[in-house]
Amino acid sequence: MAEETKTKEVRHVIPKKALYHAAFNWETWVQTNYNYERMMGMACGHTFVPVIDYLYKDDPDGAAKRKEVMQREMEFFNVHPEFGSCILGMAIALEEQKSLGEPIPGEFITSLKTSLMGPLAGIGDTIWQGVLIPILLAICIDITLTGTVWGSIIYLILMLVITYVFSFANFFFGYKQGSEAIMDFLEKGLLDRLLLGAQVMGCTVMGGLIANYVNVSCGLKLVTSGSTFNVQKQLFDAVMPGILPLGFTMLVYWLMKKRWTSIKIIVLIIVIGIVGGLTGILAA
Amino acid sequence: MSISVLQAVLLGILYWIGEANLPFVGLWTIQRPLVCGWIAGIILGDPLTGAMVGASINLVYLGFISAGGSMPADMALAGTLGATYAITGNLDAKTALALAVPIGILGTLVWYTRMTLDSVFVHLGDRFVDKEQYNKLWIANVLLPQIMSAAICIIPCSLAAYFGAAYIEDFVDMLSGTPLTIFQIIGGMMPALGIAITLQYIFKGESRAFLFLGFVIAVYSGLGLLPLGVIALLMAIVYTQLAYKQHEDKSKAAEEADMEEDF
């Protein structure tokens, strides 16, 4: 439907090479000057540097208009770098069309950027740092702990490739498809489906991690008339091996739900370790 | 085992690359103890120990999320120094982990200092834009802030590596016996934190049962995490297919019900 009404050919003045350079600038220098005042604002400006000279080329008032664009892009901006790169692509496309005479107000571009930044940061941080990285790390840590450096190498290479490929693809998605497509994607069920699948996979892997890498064991041995009762081996392991690590992890999870900070939990773990170790209730 | 000045400086540079996001991907890669522990191991001539200790330390920071400029713990410093101390002091992974976690808390100071001082360069960037010198923007966005980051990252980390390595062995000798056991107990419990943080994001609704399923499979089958990951992926695909089939059926039914109400 939309295609039929769009009979007008979309003109482009920015060469492909400059766009690649812009996408590279975004992904590579996005947090080199991360700061509380504008967050990634200047990184936005830096992303526009390779493309800015192509805008308003034949305009006698070009220099002033280019400056206006740069000032607009240096404003406060904060998003998840890889999920948010489509916003940069979209902003470049809008500034390009504006320079070609489309009636797009500058404030519209700024407000579109700021309205997309929140949802993309939320989704991006959850999927990227809450699901993708933990699962990849869990598997690669497991590989390394079998006694090889390959887990570290595989993680390093995989993550570099995923980061740049995803960021570039997303940048060009934003440049070509524009804001409507981004909002479509945010509203469609596709994202929920991805999130549900990621949660199922993530939970399963975390279950395996608890079994393999959390260590809590009871050191108590009850001696009664000649026979010793090893609490860990004869009680907990008999119920289910790893039941204490599972219980302890769920306790920490529950405390975090109660808004305990990670520092508070670290202190708690240290206290439990000291008390448990001194009394012999816990064993290494 | 003490380390040379050159090694200490290299360790400082490693921490800087991980912490200061140069290039930015350092945040997703070199910042992780799994990676920076390995590279610290290369610098100290024992990559395998570095990687394995880094991997153990990384368990604590599995799902740490840095969002909106916050930094709950400095895993790059924990990984770099944890691996360094483990190699130079012959520590086992759990003891190194218990030592690394408090270091990681201290390290957040560097991050907050950096986030605050970086604001200065924003105004320099504004001036470049005012003068239409766009090609100089990289000086304000990359060069100067990174020199500043290098100073606040390399100096403390190199000093801590150099002097820490010289004393770590004596320190551990002093600890032998019950104190060392306590370190190992703490190191054993710490990964629960990394897992619990990750669970804050994914332990929701219908997916909850899968945590226990994964746990039971791992306990009784002894499978590694790679095969378990493959099984988990397949289960996720099957589950979403089933869930969304039901979803579609339901929404169809709901639509029909709505239509009926309209009449």
TrEMBL record, chain A:
Tagged with keyword Transmembrane helix: yes
Organism: Catenisphaera adipataccumulans
GO cellular-component term (any): plasma membrane
Superkingdom as given in the UniProt entry: Bacteria
GO biological process: phosphoenolpyruvate-dependent sugar phosphotransferase system
Assigned keywords, A-Z: Membrane, Transmembrane, Transmembrane helix
Protein name: PTS system mannose-specific IID component
Pfam families reported in the protein's UniProt record: EIID-AGA
Record field: transmembrane: 127-147, 153-173, 194-214, 234-256, 263-283
UniProt keyword Protease present: no
PANTHER family registered for this protein in UniProt: N-ACETYLGALACTOSAMINE PERMEASE II COMPONENT-RELATED (PTHR32502), TRANSPORT PROTEIN, PTS SYSTEM (PTHR32502:SF23)
Automatic annotation (TrEMBL), chain B:
TM spans (from-to): 6-28, 35-53, 59-83, 95-113, 147-168, 180-203, 209-242
InterPro entries linked: GatZ_KbaZ_carbometab (IPR050303), PTS_IIC_man (IPR004700)
An annotated GO cellular component: plasma membrane
Location of this chain's protein in the cell: Cell membrane
One GO biological process term: phosphoenolpyruvate-dependent sugar phosphotransferase system
Main subcellular location of this protein, as a coarse class: membrane
Alphabetic keyword roster: Cell membrane, Membrane, Phosphotransferase system, Sugar transport, Transmembrane, Transmembrane helix, Transport
PANTHER family in the cross-refs: N-ACETYLGALACTOSAMINE PERMEASE II COMPONENT-RELATED, N-ACETYLGALACTOSAMINE PERMEASE IIC COMPONENT 1
Protein name: PTS system mannose-specific IIC component
